[in-house]
Design goal:
Blueprint lengths: L2 E5 L9 H5 L1 H8 L8 E4 L2 E4 L10 H5 L5 E5 L2 E2 L3
Antiparallel strand pairs: 1-4, 2-3, 4-5
Bound molecules: iron/sulfur cluster (2 copies).
One iron/sulfur cluster binds next to α1.
Length: about 80
């Protein structure tokens, strides 16, 4: 998918709300499909593992309390 997820590491405090809010990440967990997980939270920060399944729904952006996430599609930001 043509979505790039950008996490501002300076702002992120690793709460994991993006991980919990992302339907695709949750689906991967249910299916034990760890290769396609979009997010992981490690060492106090969220990291993007693989954005292949991202459909640009924006739920992670809404969930992040510090506005640390941007989704880029074809060089345009998905509006909040
Ligand atoms: S935009 Fe939607 S599918 Fe993509 S990472 Fe965020 S919550 Fe997951
Ligand atoms: S919701 Fe925001 S602050 Fe929390 S882990 Fe995700 S990017 Fe970091």
């Amino acid at each position: 998918m043509p979505y790039e997820i950008v996490i501002n590491e300076r702002l992120c405090h690793g709460c994991g709300d993006c991980y919990t809010a992302c339907p695709k990440t949750q689906l991967c967990l249910i299916n034990e499909d760890h290769e396609n997980l979009i997010f992981v939270v490690k060492k106090g920060k969220a990291h993007v593992v693989n954005s292949k399944l991202c459909d640009g729904c924006g739920m992670c952006i809404e969930a992040c309390p510090v506005q640390a996430i941007k989704i880029i599609i074809s060089a345009k930001e998905v509006p909040r």
